[in-house]
Specification:
By secondary structure, the protein is mainly alpha-helical. The protein has one domain. It contains 7 helices and no strands. The protein starts with a helix and ends in a 7-residue tail after the last helix.
């Protein structure tokens, strides 16, 4: 049980957090005032220059960046759950991205039942982009195992 929690717990925790944020709590009506107060607190010189439209655009951009980021992390955590290593072939790597993307689709379905939220296919696309980026980052960070140069240069023994 301990190993299961260690291996899958972070993924389940992030999926739970995404589910909670997809409720009314994470609606634009709730996040926009938070953004405005952060700007007033930390960037007071900018606060009086920002029109409501600028706050709306900034909120939109931050929300899309959040979509990409959270699903990139989810893809990394799914990869961890699937025990993907540098020697793992392509299919399980694609599976990690697909699982994160299917979760994104289910998240939008969930949001369709929340009165202050709405389901959009573009959010699923942003989430899938994030999942793909996460898988790509993992692929590049792990590198691919390359044959040892000594093995490559030596002729094969054909005497058998």
């Amino acid at each position: 049980m301990k190993q299961w929690v260690y291996r899958h717990g972070p993924m389940v925790a992030l999926m739970t957090a995404i589910f909670i944020i997809s409720s009314d709590l994470g609606s634009a009506d709730h996040t926009r005032p938070v953004l405005a107060s952060i700007v007033k607190r930390f960037l007071p010189w900018l606060a009086h220059r920002m029109s409501p439209q600028m706050i709306d655009v900034t909120d939109f951009v931050i929300r899309k960046i959040a979509h990409v980021t959270e699903y990139a992390i989810l893809s990394l955590l799914v990869s961890r759950s699937l025990a993907i290593t540098k020697d793992t072939p392509a299919k399980p790597r694609v599976l990690a991205t697909m699982i994160a993307s299917i979760y994104a689709l289910s998240d939008e379905f969930h949001q369709s039942f929340v009165p202050s939220r709405g389901a959009t296919y573009t959010d699923v696309m942003w989430d899938t982009l994030g999942a793909s980026i996460g898988s790509g980052i993992l692929y590049m960070a792990q590198g691919r195992s390359k044959p040892d140069s000594n093995q490559r240069d030596q002729p094969k023994d054909r005497t058998q």
